[in-house]
Amino acid sequence: MINIDILVGSTLGGTEYVAEATQPFLEEAGFSTQVHFSPDLTILNIEEESIWLVCLATHGAGDYPDNFKQIVEQINNISDDLSNIHFGLIGVGDSNYDTYCYAAKHFDLLLHEKGALRLGNIFNIDVVESPIPEDQIEDWIPLWIKDLNSLAI
Ligand SMILES: Cc1cc2nc3c(=O)[nH]c(=O)nc-3n(C[C@H](O)[C@H](O)[C@H](O)COP(=O)(O)O)c2cc1C
Q1: What is the pLDDT of residue 25?
Q2: 12: CATH
């Protein structure tokens, strides 16, 4: 069974619910899932083809949540590339900020720089329009699952 590593970046906990809301859909589609609330590159297997679903809030002024800073630093410092990684990306933010969903934007650029390939579009959830962000998952995740199924892993 193909596993999806779900990487969560969250300060106030809302994005953890977003991550957990994806699990039943992915599992129903035949994937196993593992949620990482403190993502750590050393326990992710980047030697083999892997799939990440990144659920990432923006904090500070367009910054990463504290629990996500470790993996960003680890990725910045690796000498290997991440060409074995396919990833999906869900950003959570507030459109009142000029730096709306910047963490997701920056992480997307970083992963691409390291050779990872994104499946599908970045799905940004605006907490102004969607005060319960996990409710938006059911619209997007079926599209992402289609992209996953088209991968020949
Ligand atoms: C101190 C603070 C700073 C924030 N800065 C940003 C920001 O720069 N850009 C953005 O899109 N959202 C920003 N937000 C909104 C959060 O991304 C939003 O509240 C989100 O739901 C938080 O997710 P979490 O509960 O998983 O931490 C900020 C929220 C707080 C409390």
Answers
A1: 98
A2: 3.40.50.360
